[in-house]
Every structure is written in C-alpha cells, then in structure tokens.
Queue: 2 jobs
Job 1
Amino acid sequence: MSHQSRRDFLKTGALSTILLGSGIALAGGCSAVQSRGKTKNVIFLVSDGMSAGTLTMADLMMRRRDGYPSNWVKMLQEGTIRRGLMDMASANRIVTDSAAAAVSWGCGHRVNNGSLNITPDGIHRKPLLPIFRDAGRSTGLVTTAEITHATPAGFAANVESRAMGEEIAEQYLQREVDFLLGGGNRHYHSDQREDGIDLYEKHRQAGYLVARTKSELMNGNPAEGKVLGVFSDSHVPYTLDHLNTPEDLQNVPTLAEMTDLAIQNLSKNPNGFILQVEGGRVDHAAHSNDAGGLIFDQIAFDDAIGIAMEFAANRDDTLVIITTDHGNANPGFNSAPDEDFDSIGNFRHTANWIRSGLNRDSSISDIRERFEYATRLEMEREHAEIYREAARGDYRAAYSRMNGTSAVLGQILANYTHVNWVGGSHTADYVELATFGPGSEALEGFVINTQLFDVITESAGVKEFIEEKTEADV
Ligand SMILES: [Zn+2]
C-alpha cells in the first residue's frame, strides 16, 4: 500500500481500517470491536515537549536520588502498559506545535501549527470534551501551564489561533467543562481581559466553585461538581522553584494534587469522564535549556501518572494514555562522572530563576552569586564572563539560535552537569506513547497521532456524538 493511500485509509477514521492499515493483528481475543463502549473513563496525560532523554533523566534521577524508578518506566519494566512510537507531524510541518499536536488527538485531524480544531479547509471539528459532554460524561482539564494553553485547548476549543486565550476561556464555560485547574488569571480577571468581563463571576453564576489558592480549592465544596481553579497570572511556577518558595508551596497545588482532586470529583458521574492532564512546563524548561527545571517538572508529571494509575490500575473501564506532543531540545547526559548528573538533584532553583535576577548590567560577582545560590555549584569566573557577554548581546554561537542567555546558561551549566541540548525548539522526533486499559491494544507499535482520537471515541462508544460544523457552535 502506498504511503498516500494508507494515509487516506487512516482518515476514514474507522478503527477496523486503522488496525488493518497499520498491520496490527487482531488475534488474542482482545479486538477493538469487542471493547466497543467498554471505556467509561479516559485519562489523557501529556508531558509537553518531552524528549526521550527527559524521560530517561527523570527516571535516572529518581532511581539514584530516591531509590525507586519513575512510574512511567516502572510500568514499562513490569509490562503493565503498552508502548508505541508516535508520529506527531501537523498538517503543514514535520515539527508540530502544541496546538496542532493536541488537536490531532482532540478531533482526529491534522491542522496547521497554531490552529485549534479548525482544519485547513475551514471546517470546525468538534473536540473530545464536547463529544464526551454530549455523551453524558463529565469533563476536565488540568495543567501547570495557563489553563487556556494550546494543549488543554486542543481538547475543548475551536479558535483560529492558540493566542486567543480570552476566547478559549469563554468557550470552556460555554461548553460546560466541569473541572478546570491551572494558571492563566490574565484571561479571566476583569482588570486584565481586553473586554473587561469578569469571567470568574460568570463561572460563579454558572455554579462553579472558583478557587484562586490551594486552600480555597481543597476546602471548597463544589455543590454542582464544577470547579475553576486559577493559581497564577500566567503559568504556575516551575516545580523546582515551587518547592523552594514557601509562599508558592502554600498557595499553589502540585500537578498530582490537582489530578487527584479532578479524578475524585469527575469519577462521581456514573456515566464516566474524560480528563486531560498536562505537565506544561517540561516544554518551557526545554525551550530554555534548563536541566533542573526540566527534570523536576518531569518528576512532578510522573507523580500525576501515579495518581491516575492508582485510580485506573484495578479497573477494566478506564483508558489511560501517557505521552508527549513533541520532543524539545533533545537533552541528554553526556559521558561524565555520575556525581555530575546527581548534582542537579541538589539544585534550589531553575535556570530561569537565575536569569530572571540578572541583566546586561549585572557584575561578574552578581552572576556568580545567583548561579551558586541556585545550583550549590561553584561557578568559574570565565563562565560568568561568557554569560555577561550573552546578556550584552555580544555572544556568537556557531548555531546562531544558541546566542541567547538561556542557551548560553544551559551550556555553561553543562560544564558542571554534562546535560546538553541540540537547540531551543521543538524537534521532529517520533514520541513515546504509553497506554493502559480498554482500547490500548490498538496503540502499540508505530502510531499516527490522529489514531488516538479514533481509538478513544470507538472504545468509549461516543462516535455518534462526533459532528462537523462550519461555525464554532459545537
Ligand atoms: Zn513549546
């Protein structure tokens, strides 16, 4: 079968066709047809921008520092989850962005980078959360990025551009998403929205518990089961900074805590639920070549996997999907003494935190002091001089995208940790896919991103609620 005809085959969306097209055998008594409608609940966990090296380094850090493996790799080791390799390309690029990536899962179509559930032909495709809502299921989005960020929005919104955060926030309300937890106050607060609308008040009127702190979230009683929790102006803090900032520890819940609360509430619906959980800041740390930020946030994501599996492990009605939307900067630990890698586990703050306190006028001693406080490592003077050069815009790397302070600081840090990077952007790598529960049998081997939508809607028995609209009125 030619590549083109196979792609057309996949576009038909019928699961049986996909199984034939991808060469997956139906032997073994667990065909997708038999599991039709078996999936009551779907938990879709995305570590945004997770290269394979990120998964490896988080697992290594946990084994060496804590004495036990990550949930993700442990489940692979024990054979409790299935493993696939997934092609995440978008409609117009080999390298996707988070919007097109989430949309490929959210509505089963490839769109151009930046677009949310509107295909290049202009058709608005109904995403998973409204489909599940129409099937009587509860719906939720949890993230450490802004709640309106591209990944959660790919499961619930239809807009031309991922930058339309205010519209996305309104669509979540119109579409009655039951559980919304993350950052992004700037898209809700009347002082910061361009139209001056108080979106928090609109949620209260619609029966939502509105929480702005961890205690408001944990102690609140959502009478109708609907919750909007917004814990920061933009994204919630990096885990590493969060752990070492008492005020944040008190006010901002962890991804695992948010996931736990969402599952507890959504699972009260006897018809079931769909929940998307995003570790959104793994991507941001990778963009900034920030090894501490990256590894600690990947570990926080892994904690959320543990919560999801605690719920799903002893049931046969919950499909759990664990994956990433694209690689990012492809970090890896280069050959060096193990202790150099271990030093990352002692960091107090992210590289982002180091940079945020410095500027072009910072002295060599300012730079060294901040670096040394954040990493507990002694900084050589020549490295502080290189950083100052970058801060003044005078640094020239051979790969010109590595001229900025984040890439330069990332490479300076690599002299101590030996974790280094290929760039500061998303990469074309096929990505890790791990699945558990009914429907997962169709997601082994090599998987095309859009297949996930077909498997989810088929195994949950909600295909009749898929519809196409030429206007955003789903
Ligand atoms: Zn990104």
Job 2
Amino acid sequence: MDHRLKQWPSAIAEGNFRLLARAISIVENEIPGHSELLRSLKIGSAPILGFTGPPGAGKSTLVNALVEQVLDQGKKIAVIAVDPSSPFNLGALLGDRIRMAEHFNNPNVFIRSVATRGSLGGLSAKIIEILDVVRASCFDYIIIETVGVGQSEVEIAGLADVTSVILVPESGDEVQTMKSGLMEIADIFIVNKSDREGALRYFANLKKLVHQQSASEWNIPVLKTVAHKKEGISEVIEQINAYIKMNIRSERKTLLLTRKALKLIKNHRIKDLDITRLNQQLGKESLRPEFNLYAFLQQFYY
Ligand SMILES: Nc1nc2c(ncn2[C@@H]2O[C@H](COP(=O)(O)OP(=O)(O)OP(=O)(O)O)[C@@H](O)[C@H]2O)c(=O)[nH]1
Ligand SMILES: [Mg+2]
C-alpha cells in the first residue's frame, strides 16, 4: 500500500474528517489503492439508521432535526444522503446543504452526499463500501437517507440496522402504501407533516394496518412528526434506540452479512465487463445461424 495511506486507518478512527472524506472519494471513484484501503480499515459497528420515503416527504428536514437532538446529547453522527434521482440534481443537493448548513462546522457531525450511478449493480455495492469506510471512524450513529421510489431503495434500506419509513398524509391510500413493499422494510413508521389536513385519519388507519400485519417480537411503532417544527423527534430517537437495544439474533446478522458479501462479490465479478463491447459482440454473433447464448457466455464464466 502507498505509504501515505498507511496512516489513514488510525487517523480516520480518531475522527479525522478530512481524511475520511478523501477515503470515501477514493472508494467511490475506485482510485488505485481503494481495495487496500478497504482491507486496512478497522470497521466498527456504529448502527446505521436508514430513512426512506417518497420524494419531498420531509426526510432531510427530519434528519436535520434528529441530528440536532443527538448532537445535544454529545454524540457524534454521520449523515450520508443518497441522491438517486440524478447526480445533476443540484437543486435538491443544495437545498439539503442549506438546511444542514448549521451543522457544517460542528466537529461532531459529518455530512456527505453520494450520487448514485447507472452502472450495472454498482450502487448498492458502492454504498456498502462507503458505509463501511464511515463505520471505520468514531460515530455513535450513521444516518443514510434515500428516496423511496423503486426497488433499489428497498435494497438500500436492507443495509441499515434500523429502517424508518417516512410517509405523509398525502401519500394516498394506506393499503396501497402497505402493498408497495415498504411494510417489509419498515422497522419504524413515521407520519411526517402531521400538521396537514387528514393526518390524524391517515395515522390511525396506518397504525391499524401495521398492527394487524406485524407478527414479530418487535411491534412496529407508528409515530407522528412535524419535522420543520421539530415535533415528535424525541420519540423517533427513543424508538430507534429501543430497536437497536433489542438484540438482533445472530442468525439474522449472519444472513445480512451473507447478503452483503453476495452483493460485493457480484459487483466485483462484473466490474470489468464492457457492456458496449458485449452489445457489439452480441449484435454480430447472434447473426450466425449456429449462435447459442449459453455457448457464447462460456467465455465469461470462471
Ligand atoms: N407542513 C409541513 N412541511 C414539512 C414538514 N417537514 C418538512 N416539510 C417541508 O417539506 C418540504 C420537503 O422537505 P425535505 O426535507 O426536503 O423532504 P425530503 O423527503 O428530504 O425530499 P427529497 O430528498 O427531495 O426526497 C420542505 O419544504 C419542508 O420544509 C412537516 O412536518 N410539515
Ligand atoms: Mg432530502
């Protein structure tokens, strides 16, 4: 390993945010040395708190309020905001930055936006690695915010130790919400914008539905917040802590680790695959009368 990188793991562990930021960039952009860096880190076990929900539900506002309270308790916290819509969504990013600005100079908080990329299978593996780099530092909590619009967010939420799903009264029909796959990933439901009309009815219906369906030792709480007024935030923190405290069975932990390993292996295996070339090759090969996809694919298997 590059001798300059040798000091990094201990510096990062001690809370050198400048190096942490650079380490993330190295991993994110696969700059030479990134594999060695990942191997050299002492990855801790700070809980990862996932926050997901529809666009504009108030995730960033809520995270911001939560960060404030946790900082007041003297804790260290990292926030990773995943921007899945597009890496060029500067408006949204800037909005987040402005709202987060009050924490920017606080030595106990680290904030980072990560743009997701279109590369095949790239996203979740990169996020896994980035979260592990952050875990090698000294945070009490690591927050990951993702927009819940499709399947990939469900996947990302799977990386978190506790997943909070943020809904708003105007999310529509509660039954529809439950069908969207959010039920499986939610450890905690938060109805934000509870100051809005129809919030009480939405809250009550959601609560009923959740309690009908939850069948584990953990009773999935349904909470109410008004994020921009910082209302209901303590309850969110309380429930998150309660969930963390409840020992996740080691069986489930191993399962999560296996899934994580699988994603990393998959990503590693297709890393060198040139899709444009594959497309050209297939365009040519498939014209041959004796073409057989399985025979063709033989060259990629090892
Ligand atoms: N009325 C009301 N407005 C809120 C509440 N929480 C957030 N907002 C507003 O909702 C808008 C969206 O908030 P964000 O925090 O950016 O939402 P988000 O879910 O992070 O949005 P994306 O990251 O773009 O998906 C902002 O204008 C907030 O001020 C709330 O509890 N009540
Ligand atoms: Mg946001």
